[in-house]
Please model this.
Amino acid sequence: MAKRTVAAIVGLGLALSACAGIRDHKGFVIDQTLADGIQVGVDNKDSVAKTLGRPTFTGQFDPNDWYYVSRNTAQLAFRDPKVTDQTVLRVQFDQAGNVAAVSKTGKEMIASVDPSGDKTPTLGRKRSFFDELFGNIGSISQPGLPGSQQ
Model:
């Protein structure tokens, strides 16, 4: 009886350990002291690159916008990861390469996008699987058309 109890406790412990949460960090590791040290009108692209390093990405429409993205996630077992903390540091430069603005946003800027459905809408007629498979059986071919025998 005692062996069964011990085996049950060990089995339950192993089963619960498989559902342990996973914490992960993705992106840039932002040092708050260094990020706060960037000053408008004083720093330029070279000094920002030396202080913070290369940006996570630059602006698609304006290469003078540098973005440093940091994200922490938590995940339980096989579920989708949930964002627990996010910081996006945006450094904007003027045409001369000097810092024009520094802004920081957080998790509140994450957008939730819901797809419209499981299927992509297409134009044309809607035929079932069997219509596609057996639709041409019994159709009369005309001479000169592709697939017809002359």
User: Anything to note?
Assistant: The longest strand covers residues 65-76. The radius of gyration is 30 Å.
